Amino acid sequence: MSRHLRTRGAGAWGAASLQAVAALRPAQQALMRDWLRGDASQRRWQTLLDAAGPDRLELADALREQLLACGALQARERLARGQWQVEHIVWADLAALQQALGLRDAATRAADQLALARDADALALHAPWLQGAVQDLASGRYAEATRRARLQLLQALADWQAEQRFGLQRDFAQFARGQTKAISAGEWDWLARHVDLAARGIARFAPLLWLGGTLSLQALQGRVDVAAARLCGLPVELFAAPTEALAPERYWLIENRASFERQALGAAPGTCVVWLPGQPPTSWQQAMAWLVAAAPAPAQISCDPDPAGVAIALTAGALWSAAGLPWQPHRMDRSDWESAPAIALTAEDRLWLERLQARADLPEPLARLCADLPEPLARLCADLRATGRKAEQEAWL
């Protein structure tokens, strides 16, 4: 049995066609947007009817005929039981129709995705601590809208860090998106998997200063003996007048949390052990600056032997330098970490080591802190480059 086919809608396509599309009723334009979200210039009519749904079938038929009349599409039909039935429709100019209805065509989407990838790479270069999150976005598991929204959060996080802000999660949400509840639970979970939010000045709860060993504080509410507690977290607001502090013999700042707890519980008398969060937030720095002024003593600073550890040690050490007190890196020499499990330097690590050693192309305030890079840290940078590896201090501290 022969199959009879025909094509309808050979009208001219041009400016008049676009004007006719622009004059469609809002409900018709909404349906047409649903039809135009794909990139195929030919579509099965049944597929478009399914997209319309049972409540818009009459609207779909009427819209098809209007688009036929203005030359926006052609209909390919077959004869069945004496009636012509539409099998496929063919868009006259898919890209122009998409643009007319505010949709992006394939070329625009490709250009936007390339620009998004470039923005992500630039952000990772500017803020290396976001590299893991950027790489996850590039994994291909996320829709473009999700990638764009999360990259916007990462950019806001970089701006938050650059401005040395600190606050609760709701404060960051207000900063990033203008509303305190504008970041979803899923987005918070994703951020927390890739970024130490507390170390970047975003606290879920009231920020604390974690201490162990020897330190006595006299506050309005009473006396706090850190040695008696052995390990405690105190609200940063406590470290301000009218609180008074009795100076220890030395401070020992440790970046790795497990190492901090281990050393705090076994601290020698006279040593106040302090947890140094990665990239210490403003509230932590303000609390420590007050403590150093109120209870002055020299400091030893222990961070992971890697470029980030160098930057963290410099940031913390600047508090002692500002108070005219000595500080020095501690347990960061090559002899300390050479037998620890090896972690290969990344290309980004090598770039940052070159910048640290050259004191060039560094963001503020790191550039200012590196102006007088202490000899032990300069030697550490050289050793890291020479060995091609870094380590985590938990392995030996």
Describe the model.
- By secondary structure, the protein is of the alpha/beta class.
- It has 3 domains: 5-100, Orthogonal Bundle (Arc Repressor Mutant, subunit A), CATH 1.10.10; 109-203; 208-395, Dna Topoisomerase Vi A Subunit, Chain: A, domain 2 (3-Layer(aba) Sandwich), CATH 3.40.1360.10.
- Helix content is 47%, strand content 18%.
- The strands form 5 sheets. The protein has a 6-stranded mixed sheet with strand order 10-7-13-12-14-15, with helices on both faces. A 4-stranded antiparallel sheet has the order 1-3-4-2.
- Strand 14, helix 14 and strand 15 (327-329) form a beta-alpha-beta unit.
- The chain is elongated and about 100 Å long.
Structure characteristics:
single chain; 397 residues; Arc Repressor Mutant, subunit A; 3 domains; six-stranded mixed beta sheet; four-stranded antiparallel beta sheet
**Can you tell me the number of structural domains?**
3
Number of strands: 17
Shape, per Cα inertia axes: elongated
The total of helices stands at 18
CATH architecture designation of the largest domain: 3-Layer(aba) Sandwich
Helix content percent band: 40-55%
In CATH terms, what is the fold-level topology of the largest domain?
A: Dna Topoisomerase Vi A Subunit, Chain: A, domain 2
Counting helices, strands and paired strands, the structural category is: alpha/beta
Map the helices and strands.
Layout: E1 5-8, H1 15-22, H2 26-35, E2 42-44, H3 45-52, H4 57-70, E3 73-80, E4 83-91, H5 94-100, H6 106-126, H7 131-137, H8 144-162, E5 167-168, H9 169-177, H10 185-194, E6 202-203, E7 208-213, E8 216-219, E9 222-225, H11 226-229, E10 231-235, E11 244-246, E12 250-254, H12 257-265, E13 271-275, H13 282-294, E14 299-302, H14 307-322, E15 327-329, H15 334-337, E16 343-344, H16 347-358, H17 366-369, H18 375-387, E17 389-390
Parallel strand pairs: 5-6, 12-13, 12-14, 14-15
Antiparallel strand pairs: 1-3, 2-4, 3-4, 7-10, 7-13, 8-9, 8-11, 16-17
Helix pairs in contact: 6-8, 8-9, 16-18
